[in-house]
């Protein structure tokens, strides 16, 4: 884990947050670890004795910030989720739904207009995009699942528009999970909403081509990044963070990305985040020529890219953030019933709370029942993720 927010809004490099039970001798305790001073302990620095850890544990310290640039790293790079209490929704899903729908609608209208303006060669006004970014951020804080559910519902004909919004939403959800400051989150969402704006200058025959692109077509497709950069550089009020979301969202760690082919540390944090959310949404989207993958399949595919193309540590964070079965996914249970995930159980991503709706063996709908798969007496478990279209189920009715 290369970055972590330490609670004052700034992002610090090389810190990992790990449970004290996983800390080993040879690691370096950062002075940023909360609670050290309060406990009257001066235990920052290299841990040379087990006693130090025992003393900290006795003082009630449960987790430490370890500086991996100064001491031993940890194989427990999968972090304790960023302050779980901060990730708790402020309001219920039902309560946030209406607001989320309005935000989604506004975002679609705005980005739709921008795309039309850019097509006619006009520059864009970043101000309104920032405003929408704030609203997305607000809704994510209220209840992230409200917007995430909407991003599952897509029209094949509106790919570019919906993809732009969804990448914005995912960016908001992910950067909040990572504990980014409000300002950084808003800039990154703005960049995400605009990341593919250059595609409007690429002809539809290339964008929607079902088969393989010719060399020339592929080169033109890749140019959408430069077209986008050109538009954004002319636009007032664009931040460097937002700009690099656009310019680096197709760069890969191994240097085989485009347009610049920069790799490794040359790719900014914004670029690394953008690549992950962009690929995830592209994989899960229905396109005119193929059906979208389930979130589960998408994560599986991306796991093969992690480390080589994608930032591995950030990707693990992303899995953690999205959870294995996100709200809105349709799953089959081990008793042949289909259910919609309506809530994630903290710490038990494989055992969500679901609404059982359908008997897949008899192919009929059943009386709706809410089941908590994590409950001690519950014998049910998830056996697979199912495509709602296969059973002609409209998830919206059950959320
Ligand atoms: Fe793109």
TL;DR?
The protein has 399 residues and is an alpha+beta fold. It has 13 helices and 11 strands.
Mean pLDDT: 84
What portion of residues is helical?
40-55%
Radius of gyration based on Cα positions: 22 Å
Largest sheet: 5 strands, antiparallel
Small molecules bound in the structure, each named once:
fe (ii) ion
Give the CA-based shape: globular
Strand content: 5-15%
Low-confidence regions: 1-12, 75-82
Tell me the strand order in the biggest sheet.
Answer: 10-9-8-7-11
Number of strands: 11
| Number of H/I helices | 13
Element order: H for helix, E for strand: EEEEEHEHHHHHHHHHHHHEEEEE
Alpha carbon gap, first and last residue = 34 Å
Q: Structural class, please?
A: alpha+beta
Please characterize this protein's 3D structure.
The structure is a single chain. By secondary structure, this protein is α+β, with helices and mostly antiparallel strands. The strands form four sheets. A five-stranded antiparallel beta sheet has the order 10-9-8-7-11, with no helix packed on it. The two termini are 34 Å apart. The site of fe (ii) ion has 4 residues, from loops.
Write the layout of secondary structure elements.
Layout: E1 3-5, E2 11-13, E3 15-19, E4 28-29, E5 45-46, H1 50-58, E6 63-67, H2 84-87, H3 93-119, H4 126-152, H5 159-177, H6 182-194, H7 204-207, H8 215-222, H9 224-234, H10 240-248, H11 269-284, H12 295-305, H13 312-322, E7 330-333, E8 337-345, E9 348-359, E10 364-372, E11 382-386
Antiparallel strand pairs: 1-2, 3-6, 4-5, 7-8, 7-11, 8-9, 9-10
Helix pairs in contact: 3-4, 3-5, 4-5, 4-6, 5-6, 5-11, 6-10, 9-10, 10-11, 11-12
The structure holds fe (ii) ion (FE2).
Fe (ii) ion is lined by residues 196, 224, 249-250.
